[in-house]
Amino acid sequence: MQFSQQADKTGGSMDDTGTTVVLGIPIPSADPTFLAIVGVHILFGIGAVTAGAIAMLSRKGRGRHAQSGTLYFWLLLGVFGTMSALALLRWAENSHLFMLGTLSILSAYSGRAAARYRWPQWPRLHLFGMGASYIFMLSAFYVDNGKNLPLWRDLPEIAFWVLPGAIGLPLIVWAAQRHPVVLNFDRSHPPSKTDRR
């Protein structure tokens, strides 16, 4: 596909099919409303990826982990809202992204609720929910954009769907068995006699 050299105000270019290219990534529209939603979506996405990474890498408990995790949840909700609008505008092309976004926000909601309301086995449920939400979010990004990214564009399309989970899921399983918060919870909540049956 050839793109014209005529740059638009976003620093991208447009081809004759109405595709806008920003930083090498084609956006399938020249509609200003659609592009504005994409811009807000990108900002929410960058914020969510950053806040989620900070929460994952911070010492667990109150403070940085809780603040970053809360920020991640609300930014992810923004990602979900803007993604929903974009999916509705191009449902035939984006319904699969709506599915991944729905799985992401539902996983985050469950993980957050597990910690807030201290569900049974809440540390593991929190870890699985928040971790799964991050995997679904990254999967949606790569499924939508992987074909345009350096290194990723050389991979088969199935890799965009599978690779985030193939990397993230073993880390989640390991943490659910070995993380100090989980181990401390297990020590302070030994199984009852009825649980052992």
| Shape type | elongated
> What strand order characterises the main sheet?
1-2-3
Helix content: 55-70%
Please trace the helix and strand order, writing H or E for each element: EEEHHHHHHH
User: Helix/strand/pairing class, anyone?
Assistant: mainly alpha
Please tell me the total number of domains. Answer: 1
Q: Are there runs of 5+ residues with pLDDT below 50, and where?
A: 1-16
State the assembly state of the protein chains.
Answer: single chain
**Integer-rounded radius of gyration:** 20 Å
Record field, number of beta strands: 3
Number of helices: 7
Overall pLDDT level: 89
Q: What is the terminal-to-terminal distance? A: 64 Å
Query: Which percent band covers the strand fraction?
Result: under 5%
The largest sheet, given as strand count, sense and whether it forms a barrel, is:
3 strands, antiparallel
Keywords:
single chain, elongated, 7 helices, mainly alpha, 3-stranded antiparallel beta sheet
Show the helix and strand layout.
Elements: E1 13-14, E2 20-22, E3 25-27, H1 32-57, H2 64-89, H3 91-116, H4 122-145, H5 157-178, H6 180-188, H7 193-196
Antiparallel strand pairs: 1-2, 2-3
Helix pairs in contact: 1-2, 2-3, 3-4, 4-5
What does this structure look like?
The chain contains seven helices and three strands, in the order βββααααααα. With 197 residues, it is mainly alpha-helical. It has one domain (31-190). Strands 1-2-3 form a three-stranded antiparallel beta sheet, with no helix packed on it. The chain starts with 12 loop residues before the first strand and ends with a helix. 25% of the residues are buried. The model is unreliable at 1-16 (pLDDT under 50).
